[in-house]
Amino acid sequence: MERFIDLAVSAVLLAGLYATMAYGLGMIYGVLRVVNLAHGGVIMAGAYMGWVLHGRLGLDPYLSIPLVVGASYLLGVGMYKVLVRHLPRGAAGGPASLLLLFGFWLVLRNAAYLLFTGNDQSITTTWSTRSVALLGTHISATRLAVLGVGVLVPLGLHALLRHTHLGRAIRAVAQNPDSCTLVGVDVERIYTITFGLGTALAGLAGLLSATIFAFNPGSGSGELLKSFVVVVLGGLGSVLGTGIAALILAVVEVFAILVMPSYLTAAVGFIMLVLVLVIRPGGLFGHRVLG
Amino acid sequence: MSRGFRPPAPPRLLLGYGIVVAGLAALPWFTELTVYSHNLMTLAFLSIAGALAWNWMGGFLGQVSFGHAAMFGVGGFVAARILLAGPVPAPLAWLAGGLAAGVFALGAHPTLRLRGPYFSIATIGMGEATRLLFTYWEDFTGGSSGLSLPIQTDMKHHLYWWGLGLVALVAAASWLIRHSALGLQLLAIKADVDAAADLGVSATFYQDLVFALSGAVVGVTGGMWASYFSFIEPNDMFGFDRSIAFVLMAVIGGVGTVLGPLLGAVVFVLLRQYLLASYPQLYLGLYGLLLIFIILFEPLGLTGLWLRLWRRLPWARAEA
Amino acid sequence: MAILETRALSKQFGGLRAVDRVDLVLEPGQILGVIGPNGAGKTTLFSLIAGSQAPSSGEVLLDGRRVDGKPAYKLVRAGVVRTHQIVRPFPNLSVAENVAVGAMHAAGRAHGPVRDRAVEVLEFVGLAERARAMPGTLTLAGRKRLELARALATAPRVLLLDEVIAGLNPSEAQALAALIRRIRDERGVSIIMIEHVMPAVMSLSDRVLVLDQGRMIAEGSPEEVVRNQAVVDAYLGESHRKASA
């Protein structure tokens, strides 16, 4: 029973991280119809940003959130302006955009390798080992913090999309870019901002996960896949859907430890994807992401 | 009458094909190839066959797979297991490996309901899941210590011709697919799945078919690869880098063109040989940059460059 | 016996009934016009019949046998084919190749006959001269003919035409209307056509069915339908809605 509560708690804590990752991927897709294949690479980059700030400047990872988010935002703006914007017209969702962003991922991987070698790294702070007693178990303080950020940030973004002028413009562009141009919305600017916000979320997710898991330049493909599973499960642009889907993925992943050898848990995301495709091709909430 | 249809194989093309294949087959007897270049060409042949087969999926159907290493590994390990089990002629073992890989590819059926980017991401997952599964299935793959195959004298030397034969077959198949009813339907699916379905084309059927065929060819190359190195290890055979290689070769040469991937594979193999020797720390990033440049400036890769050059030549202009 | 029939065919999207218990009967050799205000569910009705979408409830019968829920590609092989309001040629294939894709599933023919059929259909619709052209170079009228040719190449018995005439200038429209009549008369294809261009529907159709908000509000000969008060209201209602919007 105690083990059960342990696992349940760590699933909930993990879900916040997954929601953040997935929201970034889903947001870019929802507005630009481009799947950011470099998503995993940006997550990896975010982890290294936090690691450098902590290692070199002694900055606590939670204090470095604004810096990492800002830098990732700029990275995303750059990616959009230098790469994605120059895709041939009509190629947005096609193989060209995939290959382009995949190429960028390879560059990121190589850059990280050159800068930081291929060794596994992680961020350990003085309070990493501390834990909080809750529900009869001990919960590590970092994981709790990750959950907090992972819940607050998507909710904040949701509020931004609902209640600000910019958010309304973003949602309008997602619906119909052509008529937005007609009514004077600067669609290019919205695309740039959205791509920046999506990668900022990815960078944040990388920073958060670096406080829990080890990472290296090759990290990211697992994260990309998990984000994708959550998007397929939860649908686009719905904070609640994303949250529930992230929770489902985290629960399945955590409890899989009980029934399958630990080395296979890395494949749980994929197995779930296949199951979803077989059982509910339309996604859990009926939002079709499939072509 | 071929109004508006793609023409049948012109005799000139057939002749050229025959001359190139025969010339390459005879090459080792006419010139003193060093062992190094003989072997390098063998590896190039295997890569070419894989790149051409990947292109059936990624180019003709427009479904970019980042998981072809799964079929490569399955083909390799099945062939290796058969060769270890008893005195079976190697080509039979390769064929069995290819068959197993083709059947394995059919297991990806659920992911083939996905289109475009979703399919691509799912194949990343498929590749990764397969790698984990086989790495830990030690009874079959020997785990991370791998499998050593029985040494067959001259196998490495003879693989030159086996590899060439495979390339000849797969290149011909690529041309035939592209110029047949099958190819038309693949292009129709690539352009618009729904419109194709409204004309009676079952996208699911053709995607399964092409994925299985493509996987089978890649499986055969995996088997040959195993024989060539006489040692294979799951993390290498199933590795993500291997999946990436198929993508890069096809993109460099020209995605969706008939013979571009052939060219791309040659360039890729030579370039990798050079980069690994001179800039081992940069090689992945340089390929990434290459990919970016190709997509932004010449989406048809080397084939596109060739077409541009060709149009500038005076006689080509006169013809048009 | 009717060649195609629907019984209480319905499609629900969330709380919205896009198609609501439609009973439609198409007799062999007939042209059935489907009219109705925008958003009446006409195109959805086609999607349900052609298998592009599965109905929420109700039946579709072809020659008295149920075909509802079958995927589009199977219905094509059974002899039911649709065209799209917004034409969707394969831009990477020539005009002839576009038609050939349709011809391939006519009855599982080999390569040679596919080509013959494609050429024959191109001549029938008057596109033979443009066989080698890429679809992007055709005029709108040309692309509508191509859309028709592709569908005809599948050798259908039931052809569903979604606004093939709309958007054309009067002389093009007249030519296309004549072509539709020839499809019925010379090829024996039964046709259901959605159309906004009233003169065309009224002159071509043997019977007309009127949809409003997913429901059948009238059905009968063209003369009967134009005199029907419910139909007049539905259309007036639409112009009222437009005026106030």
How would you describe what is shown here?
Chain A has a single domain, classed as ABC transporter involved in vitamin B12 uptake, BtuC (Orthogonal Bundle), CATH 1.10.3470. Chain A is built from 11 helices and 2 strands; from the N terminus they run ααααββααααααα. A two-stranded antiparallel sheet of chain A has the order 1-2. In chain A, helix 2 packs antiparallel against helix 3, helix 2 packs across helix 8 and helix 5 packs antiparallel against helix 8. The C terminus of chain A is likely disordered. Chain B is mostly helical. Chain B has one domain. Chain B has 16 helices and 2 strands. Chain B has a two-stranded antiparallel sheet with strand order 1-2. The longest helix of chain C has 18 residues. Chain C starts with a strand and ends with a helix. About 2% of the residues of chain C have low confidence. Chains in contact: A-B, B-C. Chains A and B meet through helix 4, helix 9 and helix 11 of A and helix 5, helix 12 and helix 14 of B.
Radius of gyration of chain A: 19 Å
Main sheet attributes: strand count, strand direction, barrel closure of chain A: 2 strands, antiparallel
Largest interface: A-B, 51 and 45 residues
Based on DSSP secondary structure assignment, what is the total number of beta strands of chain C?
Answer: 10
Average pLDDT over all residues of chain C? 86
When the domains of chain A are counted, the total is 1
Global outline of chain A: globular
SS content category of chain C: alpha/beta
Q: What is the class of chain A in the CATH system?
A: Mainly Alpha
Distance between the termini of chain A: 43 Å
Helix/strand-derived class of chain A? mainly alpha
Question: Mind telling me which CATH architecture of chain A this is?
Answer: Orthogonal Bundle
CATH-derived topology of chain A: ABC transporter involved in vitamin B12 uptake, BtuC
* Secondary structure tally: strands of chain A: 2
Low-confidence stretches of chain A: 286-291
Q: How do the strands line up in the largest sheet of chain C?
A: 6-7-8-3-9-10
N-to-C SSE string of chain C, H for helix and E for strand: EEEHEEHEHHHEHEHEEHH
Work out the oligomeric state of the chains in this entry. heterotrimer
- What is the strand arrangement across the widest sheet of chain A? 1-2
Rough shape of chain C? globular
